[in-house]
Amino acid sequence: MVKPGEKLKFLIDVGVGKKVENFLSAEGYDTKCIRDINPRMADIEILNIAATENRMVVTMDKDFGELVYNSKLSHGGVLLLRLEEANSSRKLEIVKDIIKNFPDKILNKFCVYKDGKLRIRG
Questions:
Q1: Model's pTM, two decimal places?
Q2: Do the beta carbons of residue 17 and residue 83 sit within 8 Å?
Q3: How far apart are the C-alpha atoms of 23 and 75, rounded to whole Å?
């Protein structure tokens, strides 16, 4: 659990892109990138790392919803970006907005950003 004043920690999935990875690292967030660990890592392994290290997975992969809700796998939070046509600059803009405006609300939650809206589920 992140204590008051402590920053979120992130685990960035491959499809999210280097701009988001670089921004979070530059802002001082404890960030790990799947591309640097194993770009072919299975989603279940990604969730395991996230749960073990209390990291929020930032992904564009809808399979994480299946794993969290149907398979009931534990996690440290998931931010699913439903941005099929977005370029890396748009992804970065959205991630910046979310962590600026909702850092305490997204902690350990399953969040979906789609069509300009962020849904946060416990």
A1: 0.91
A2: no
A3: 23
